[in-house]
Prior knowledge:
58% of the residues lie in helices and 6% in strands. By secondary structure, the protein is mostly helical. It folds into two domains: 7-92, Orthogonal Bundle (DNA polymerase, domain 1), CATH 1.10.150.130; 110-235, Orthogonal Bundle (hpI Integrase, Chain A), CATH 1.10.443. The strands form two sheets. Strands 1-2 form a two-stranded antiparallel sheet. Helix 1 (11-23) packs antiparallel against helix 2 and helix 6 runs antiparallel to helix 8. The radius of gyration is 24 Å and the shape is globular.
Amino acid sequence: MEQKTQEKLTPEVQEAFLTHLSGRGCSHISLREYRRTLTVLCECLSEEKTITAESGQRWRQWLEEQGFSPRTINTRISVWNSLMQYLGHRDWQIDTFSSIEGDVQPELTRSEYLRLLSTAKQLGQEKTYLLIKTLGGVGLRLQELSQLTAVAVRQGRVRLERQNGMSTRILRIPAVLQKELLSYMEQEGITEGPVFATAGGKPMDRSNVGHCIRKLSRDARISAEKVNPRCLWKMYQSTQEGIQANITVLMEQAYERMLEQEQLTVGWEYG
């Protein structure tokens, strides 16, 4: 029997693959990861969702360009290899994994972040400016960006939901950013749905966002390795941790001063 030279990753094929894994005892948690990986894979395939012998290496390169960590890339490769085995294309599997040694993601500094914003402003790239500011200033992960809706901006907070509808956390939109987003929405006629969408009205995905900010990184002369959604999120977290650390020090100092004042009136007197 002649082997196929291409496959199509249709929704039916994906569901059949997941059913196959479930039948082999794959846990619900693992199945969610497989499904998430298939969704990411579909993002970088052609509109026809065609897979060939070269698709695996192209996908791996795409994952690296998007700034995924080596650990995440290796997880994605494992899913790819399982899918290829299921489809009967073991020769399409990826043999080499990413090295985890020295798995240190380059960090975007606050000054570099501000340079990105300044460059976008100078070039008149309002959407990219707001995209960078949202990812770096709110604490949204890329997969949560679609939940930044017109309603959320008007309310001044993003209510993040799990797939089962249970709320995970609520993120506040800083007032200065909310004002800019509201002006942008009015200018673009956005009254409902995601604030950041493609020309076709679909929420911006990893590929759309990556293309936008990579181009800006070149204009701002900042290493592309540092300019991706993951680095922006890490910068936000580092900023918050730094502020929290400062607050903790101030609280400890205030507490010590309070105890010293109390000691003057009720402290035990030792000779």
